[in-house]
Amino acid sequence: MAQNSSIEWTDHTFNPWWGCTKVSPGCLHCYAETWAKRVGQKIWGAGSPRRFFGEIHWTEPLRWNAAAAVSGIRRRVFCASMADVFESRSELAVEREKLWTLIDATPGLDWLLLTKRPQNISKFAPWTKEWPPNVWVGTTVENQHWAEVRLPYLLTIPAKRRFLSCEPLLGALDLNKWISKRSKGLYPIDWVIGGGESGPKARAMLPGWARDLRDQCRDARIPFHFKQWGHWAPAQNKSAFAKEFWDEVEGKFIKMEPVGKKSAGRFLDGKTWDEVPKAA
């Protein structure tokens, strides 16, 4: 849990529990698993327990909601940075019910429910046709394969906002079949977050992938947020540590260098992209 989160696209983070199981390539270098191990929590994997919290933990969003009411400014809450709300485990049922009650009690907060398991949303969410205006639901799409697998589930959900986290972006993405007139019968994509992977073992995100994703969003008038380059960034001048990668979108080899998240920064073509959809 964190007030004033360091994650660029949210204001706060809230975790109803800690722990998860890896399900796709985007999970390979999971920062949440790394952090949990660092603080001595063995909570990752299907055979591991999850970490639960006491009542004081659950009252913090109530204070955020009260502050939002006083200021008149809505706040976004990323739920959950250290777990997956829609993981299918029987011991999570009680905690999920507490979460739905908390969301209902905090109408001044927009809850961003990000999952790698969108096929479970309809099964576990308490809402059917009419979703609360303060619930945004999203899924991770790290490459084209997982876009094809996950978007057909996400875009059937009648939440007020649906979003994509294309982080870590591991390949070029073509979203046109979901943002064109061919997507009849599905709800629209309301927001796209793109970014590269961080950490010393990170895989590089190539410039063509990020630019093409941004351009698709601009053409479709979808707000685009570029979170970070991650550990790798386009090489500047001559770098002894640079490596060449074939960028199929740019149609040329691109030199990237491992400079770390902070040095790599958030500029894409000379500017930051911090677009966010309006609250419902």
Describe this structure in words.
The model has no long low-confidence stretch (mean pLDDT 95). It is built from eight helices and ten strands. The chain is globular. The protein has 280 residues and is an alpha/beta fold. Helices cover 27% and strands 18% of the residues. Strand 3, helix 4 and strand 4 form a beta-alpha-beta unit. The protein has a single domain, classed as TIM Barrel (Alpha-Beta Barrel), CATH 3.20.20.
| CATH architectural arrangement | Alpha-Beta Barrel
SSE series: EHHEHEHEHEHEHEEEEH
What is the molecular shape? globular
Largest sheet: 7 strands, parallel
How large is the radius of gyration? 19 Å
- Stated plainly, the CATH topology is called TIM Barrel
Can you identify the CATH class?
A: Alpha Beta
Query: Structural class per helix/strand content?
Result: alpha/beta
Q: Can you count the helices?
A: 8
Instruction: State the helicity in percent bands.
Output: 25-40%
Tell me the total number of β-strands.
Answer: 10
Low-confidence stretches: none
Q: Spatial order of the strands in the main sheet? A: 1-2-3-4-5-6-7
Q: How many structurally independent domains?
A: 1
User: Strand fraction band?
Assistant: 15-25%
Q: Kindly state the mean pLDDT as a whole number?
A: 95
Cα end-to-end separation: 24 Å
